[in-house]
Amino acid sequence: MIPGTGRRLIKKFFFDANDGIIQVMETIIRKIDKNQIDETVINEAGGLLKAGRLVAFPTETVYGLGADALQEEAAKRTYAAKGRPSDNPLIIHIADYEDLKKIAVNIPPQTDMLAAHFWPGPLTMIFEKSENVPYGTTGGLDTVAVRMPSDPVAQALIRAAGGFVSAPSANTSGRPSPTTAQHVAEDLGGKIDMILDGGSVDIGLESTILDMTVSPPMILRPGAITAEMFEKVIGPVDTDRTLLDADSKQAPKAPGMKYRHYAPKARLMIVEGDIREEILAIRQLAYAAHREGGKVGIIATSETLPFYNYGIVKNAGTRENEKTIARSLYRVLREFDEEDVDTIYSESFAVQGLGNAIMNRLEKAAGHETIRAAEIVKLQKYRRIIFVSSSDCARGPMAAELLRHRDLKQEYVIDSRGLVVLFPEPVNQKAEAIMRSAQMTLGDHTSQKFDGANIQEDTLILAVGESQKQKLLAEYSGLKNVYTLNEFTGDDGEIPNPYGGALAAYGECFEALDRLTDRLADKLNSFTEEE
Ligand code: AMP
Ligand code: MG
Predict the structure, then answer these.
(1) Is 240 in the pocket of ligand 1 (CB under 6 A)?
(2) How far is the CA of 330 from the centre of ligand 2 (A)?
(3) Tell me, what's the pLDDT at 22?
């Protein structure tokens, strides 16, 4: 902050691509409260726009990079600051409905109804352009995209600038769109004249684009206003086929959709399946990457966050309210650019309502790379291993801890349980002493009774002896994957029961378990190699 002025400046040297000289630009950052708009700030910003300069401002969708839409030169500056190809047209923002007639011609009658319902708001409509609109703004097209934002700061600025403000998202081309003034400053600080900081945006994804030059109107980009919402107002609308069909060779009708937008630095892949499969698949992928020394990021939700043990996990919001996910998506993608991750796995979201827009942006960020969760999940046969002994005080917990120390190619939940446990007891002290002599500990394990419920197909149950196995089969009908540890590892010996014996008896038991868990690890690891 510059003392006494309430202004913050970002200075940057940059290379101007047009005339090849090094320039210095100061970006003024001004805070603005949409509930109490400071007219002095708005007039200052409006004056800059009228002079052909660039001002970034908040809208309800994302931050926009404003320029006077009727000045060709201002459009050129916009493209230069964003590093955006100039055949990618800009959306003109208006604040008053009557102004539409000044920039569009042959406006179809349905427009009134749509505007009455959705303007001001996150809807962009495409019309034939009037002569007032320079080709620089429309990327050479004879059509013009128009939106009336609902954010009061945006409205005040548009009026102060003369009524027509072109505004693409205020990010560097190819980066996630900005949802805070900080994001804008990261990308465009030193390259534009001013940033109005109005805090975080509400929606977080760009507007829905509806082409009004065709009948019925066609959705070119999904957003917060959905096909179902249009339908209630004007009847059926079409959707650009290239949006539905990722492999389409055809160019999308909204030119901007052809560029690989919103791309994070790391490789992003979307894991698709039902949510349980997605979690399991991402767990497997994250564990495998961790084991190979890779750094993984995970895009998860409040509901699924606790399931991940490896990788940098970020919460995109709650599945109960998709608005929270729309609002956080770009922030999360940007945050991953600051993290040292080489791969990001994302859960997927239902393609319904707002989910359409969320998945559309996520797929673009991922360059349409998806992984079928079921294909990954089927590669892992067991996910949970339970060692069963009589009292869960010595052999079971020892086997479990020994296995946890093995190099396992897949992630397992490793537990031990007892057949006769009346109340929780700490582990046998001699068992603990032997474990400690091998630099391990049973810690504060307390015995737990085996419970036949919650046993899934992917649980492997390993009894420490034949009698425990028989008891399990007799007491719990329908149990699958029950073996003795010896049997499962192809060993014809038995694990000695140390109960009541001297320390040496526990030592012998340890030796046997050590050998068997080593074989067990090999066997478990071999399951991945078979596939
Ligand atoms: P942005 O400003 O980044 O939110 O993106 C603006 C996008 O609106 C462009 O990239 C195009 O996809 C779309 N658009 C703008 N004008 C037109 C137009 N005349 N016809 C079709 N799509 C347009
Ligand atoms: Mg954009």
Answers:
(1) no
(2) 12
(3) 45
